[in-house]
Amino acid sequence: xxxxAGSGRFPIAFAEAARKQGLLVxxxxxxxxxxxxxxxxxxxxxxxxxxxxxxxxxxxxRAKVDRVVMAGKIEKTVLFQPFRMLRLLPDWxxxxxxxxxxxxxxxxxxxxxxxxREFARDNIHFESALDFCPELLVKHGFLxxxxxxxxxxxxxxxxxxxxxxxxxxxxGQSVVVNDLAVIAxxxxxxxxxxxxxxxxxxxxxxxxxxKVAKPQQDMRFDVPxxxxxxxxxxxxxxGRVLAIESSKTIMLxxxxxxxxxxxxxxxxxxxxxxxxxxxxxx
Length: 282
What we know:
The protein is of the alpha/beta class. It has 2 domains: 2-131, Rossmann fold; 137-281, LpxI C-terminal catalytic domain (Cytidine Deaminase, domain 2), CATH 3.40.140.80. It has helices spanning 10-20, 38-41, 53-62, 84-88, 92-101, 108-120, 150-168, 191-201, 228-237, 254-264, 273-281, and strands at 2-5, 26-30, 44-48, 67-71, 125-127, 141-142, 174-178, 181-185, 208-211, 225-226, 241-245, 250-251, 267-271. Helix 5 (92-101) packs across helix 6 and helix 8 (191-201) runs parallel beside helix 9. The longest helix is centred in the middle third of the chain and has 19 residues, at 150-168.
């Protein structure tokens, strides 16, 4: 099995789960993003610069890999730095991908689907990492001892539709809400930095973060993910509630995350659209 790895714990969690299932994982990590720990949990591990898709394809071919999963965060901010072409030095396969599949726009879905199409030209096909580790998806219900107040439930309902619309537009997956007002919307910076910005704008704290899957979510990539760092950032910024979409959100190191949230007095609830509709009626 191949693994195209970005940053964070998700690639490591996938590799550990795949190994337990008897699979040999051949990983290609994005240079400067993927964790060195992958060397310890994968059968083979190599690195490739972000804009060298041709090299990544060749590495998988040498390992006789034709099934790959994508896991981990890719920092898009590098695409908006000065002299990006000189910094990235893309190979011809990356240029082919860009001009043939990504000229319409540069949204997350557009770029990641373009990567998948370029790999497919060499009969390397992407699958969902969650087919191998479905236990990472959050189950429905209250995850912490603390539960949202009535006012916080109103913020969750208010934020849910907004977050879904941002997802439909492929802008981001999270919104931060307080007292039925939008404090921050996640875009290219990612969830943690959006939460930090909310803390700067809402100095009294007590806000709610709503994080959802896109209505058109492709489970092969960019699945909403939270971990212990999300909870630490939320507490430092002054947030009190994290509402996530059940069965469509990855929670890494679940026991650690829930224990940390309980110690910090943060409520985490995993919900879906049906429950919000029932609560609205009630």
